[in-house]
């Protein structure tokens, strides 16, 4: 049965059925044009073309349902919401995109990370800059030297040179006007490959052979031939190879103490010594630079003489290292800067002394200051012997040889027996 186009439109727009009440016939959609068929299936339904012969009369606007665009396939015009963003042809106002908000926790951690980075860089940069200005001196002796021992051995020297001190400063510090330079303090810092480090004091009045200068007090070696002869003398009398050399003068010692804000020392009894300008009561004191220097140099008011003096020197050095490594010194940028620069300007290093050796020295000194290292004095047989150089200190040669022999083998496990009870 043939159908007309009007019948198709009646079915699509749901016009009333004919009154003959015949069953509805199956409708066949018009064939798709060839070009649309080649483009593939589409989910969009194209509206039919109205026949001008069947034009509906427009009704009230409220009675006409809004035309809905298809659920898929893009917006086809008519009713409904238009797509977001500007139309393809340009123009229009794009929909604004909400701005990114910074997370407060992430921002805080990022700021803390930057501050930590700056702090770490400062910890490294300040000493590198300061120590680049350190003076150097040739300390390596000529001729035969002892063989290298395991570990690292550093010679620490406190010089009594008045160089750089004004007349007023010499008077204030009580250093006198002695020309030239001698060694007020001589210590050996030995850090083994394994085991406890040991700090050994060599009394400055030790009566020993000085190469090419006969027998004399060991501090005269510095006066006769400077650091080279002093190193040579220490090596020949101990059998140890000196790996590094560190020297501090009077003025440098005072500057470092002042940069630390003084050192707290507790005195078992009052000290009154005219030569060292000391007048301290019994008890604990925060010693500034000048008083700290007098404290470590004093010996006439000490009944133990040079032996008591070396013990105070070790105690002062340990306290300095402990305070210098404390958070109050490291975390305070002003004190950290002043301390590094004061130390760099006050210290003279041997030409062969490396940065690695200085780090080893610092780590060893820290262990000693914390009580995990040893502090000793060369074994003594007579602290007040009469010699050609006057009253001097004589070593116990047998015990000294045994002690230094253990160190030459890199073993510090048996050195406690040389500590004074």
Could you write a compact summary of the structure shown?
Keywords: Membrane, Transmembrane, Transmembrane helix. This protein has helices at residues 5-12, 34-38, 104-131, 167-173, 220-238, 250-259, 289-297, 306-324, 327-330, 333-346, 355-369, 397-408; strands at 135-137, 152-159, 183-191, 198-201, 207-209, 215-217, 244-248, 263-267, 271-273, 278-280, 283-287, 347-350, 374-377, 380-387, 390-395.
How is this structure best described in words?
This protein is α+β, with helices and mostly antiparallel strands and 421 residues long. The protein has a single domain, classed as 3-Layer(aba) Sandwich (Aminopeptidase), CATH 3.40.630. It contains twelve helices and 15 strands. The strands form five sheets. The protein has a seven-stranded mixed sheet, sandwiched between helices.
Name the descriptors.
421 residues, two-stranded antiparallel ribbon, 17% strand
Secondary structure topology:
Elements: H1 5-12, H2 34-38, H3 104-131, E1 135-137, E2 152-159, H4 167-173, E3 183-191, E4 198-201, E5 207-209, E6 215-217, H5 220-238, E7 244-248, H6 250-259, E8 263-267, E9 271-273, E10 278-280, E11 283-287, H7 289-297, H8 306-324, H9 327-330, H10 333-346, E12 347-350, H11 355-369, E13 374-377, E14 380-387, E15 390-395, H12 397-408
Helix pairs in contact: 3-10, 6-7, 6-10, 7-8, 8-11
Mean pLDDT: 79
Strand content: 15-25%
**CATH topology-level name:** Aminopeptidase
Kindly give the count of domains: 1
